[in-house]
Amino acid sequence: MKKFTGFYKGINLGGWISQCKEYTKEHYQSFIQKEDFLKIKELGFDHVRLPLDYNVIMTDDGKYIEEGFTYIDNGIKWAKETGIKVILDLHKTLGYMFDTNAVPNPDEFFTNKKLQDIFVDIWDSLSKKYGDKSDFLAFELLNEVVNPNYEKEWNQIASRAFNTIRKNTKESWIVVGGVNYNSVSAVPGIKVPFDEKTVLSFHCYEPMVFTHQKAYWVREMPADYDVDYPGPDIDYLRQKSRPIPQARYGAIFDPSMDKLQMDENFFINLFKPAIDTAEKLNLPLYCGEYGVIDKADPQATARWFSDIHKALNKYQISSGLWSYKEMDFGLIGPHYDPIRQQICNGIK
Fold first, then answer.
1. Out of 39-48, 74-83, 213-222, 312-321, which region has the weakest mean confidence (pLDDT)?
2. Residue 250 has pLDDT above 50, yes or no
3. pLDDT tens, 190-229?
4. Of the listed 140, 151, 206, 289, which one is catalytic?
5. Read out DSSP for 87-108?
6. Which of 38-52, 164-178, 262-276 has the lowest mean pLDDT?
């Protein structure tokens, strides 16, 4: 399996120019600064995944906001100055985002050519502007396509964006994920014009009832139940919660999970479909998001990270931890003080 050269141990900058509490100039200028990149370097990371929402750089009528690009420029500049690489991830495009409750008709994107044209145009603009930075900047097409019924349509849209980027830069890595919230089991279904600078992406928050326990945004997730890892509680809650979160998060209860034991080999077995595909195509794998909510027990969290890192290290899969700051998963928050260094040292 090919390696994602230069991008091995990363962390997400969620909440800065994506999923913002407030989309304001004051927020963009204060949430992340150069000192954060220095801290990220100090913690041992070699790259950041930089999520971007379209509305930072574009109005809803498709006109670009030039000032919005300055925040991307700042991130790229600070990364370059501190020796950090960047994956620029389009987290939200006009008409679509992974939080399907936040847009009126999230599936319209897959049937509306105008919305698709805007998506492709965004990538035309981004790759023209940043394609000359291929030595340290990669492009990720779109964060977490949800509905598995639109896998074919997503592959067609992704291929258009892929080809558009390639017209502007031949050397930039292009990261692309599958359906079901970038489920690891969806990697075999990714169909784009693969070339030697293509990266196959997946996200992993399995088992969801542990990593997202007490999450207020997951419908009917128990708000007062502590879930251990590993342990019988997970199997119990997987069955109890099956009809509810599955409708909200396509990758929570992947059918293949029912055949897996919750032990130190859980992630090694879970990743097998993606690993087999990457080896067949001789392409790199990237686990672009993984992490545990700051409401989980720290020691159980450390055990979860130990197990997933074992799988990532075994196959030398590149990864981006979610997330650096706040966002209910912030690594630098006080919740992680007792285990932060252990987590950071886990990727080798």
1. 213-222
2. no
3. 999 999 999 999 999 988 888 999 998 887 677 888 888 8
4. 289
5. EEEEEEETTEES-TTSSS-GGG
6. 262-276
27-37 burial string, b = 16+ CB within 10 Å, else e? bbeebbeeebb
Per-residue pLDDT, 222? 76
Indicate if 326 belongs to the active site. no
Rounded CA separation 298/303 (Å): 9
pTM above 0.90, yes or no: yes
What six digits make up the tokens of 251?
A: 């990758």
Structural contact between residues 140 and 253, judged by C-beta atoms closer than 8 angstroms: no
Q: Is 264 a catalytic residue?
A: no
Integer CA distances (angstroms), 17 to 75, 88, 212, 287, 346, in order: 10, 11, 23, 21, 28
Among 182, 172, 4, CA closest to 91: 182
**Residue 87 to residue 242: CA distance in whole angstroms:** 34
pLDDT in tens, 118-152: 999 999 999 999 999 999 999 999 999 999 999 99
Is the link from the previous residue into 245 a cis peptide, with omega within 30 of 0?
Answer: no
Residues 6+ apart with CB under 8 A from 344: 43, 44, 45, 331
By DSSP bridging, strand 85-93 and strand 96-97 are: antiparallel
Catalytic option among 26, 66, 144, 151: 144
